[in-house]
Design brief:
By secondary structure, this protein is of the alpha+beta class. It has four helices and four strands. A hairpin with a 4-residue loop joins β3 and β4. The radius of gyration is 15 Å and the shape is globular. Bound molecules: zinc ion (ZN).
Length: 129
Amino acid sequence: MRQELCIKLYEAFPDYFQERHLPETQSCMAYGVECGDGWYQIIFDLCRKIQLINPENFRFVQVKEKFGSLRIYYTPCTPDTNLAVSAAEHESDSTCERCGTKENVTQEGGWIKTLCTTCREAKERRWDV
Ligand SMILES: [Zn+2]
């Protein structure tokens, strides 16, 4: 995810992303949010949901893309936080990782990526078109 969007998340939810200040040997959050820009809104909405649940000292341990889906590791794991995070991960399965649309999204390729038709064609030419 581009720096500008990561910073927006950090500024809106500083406590949840507090581990970004730790060295990479202690937390994967040191690498930032490791997925495409298209999933920004899913992560933002998840943070808003977490605020409503208001678990004690909630923080992300790792946020990344794996096998075409958003993978989020966090603490504490409670029934409510588990449900909110699962819903966000599930939503990423049908949301283009590059542009965020939910139209014409498929998961395919040897290296699975969740993309809409437009972004898939752009990726075939070059990822950053
Ligand atoms: Zn797209």
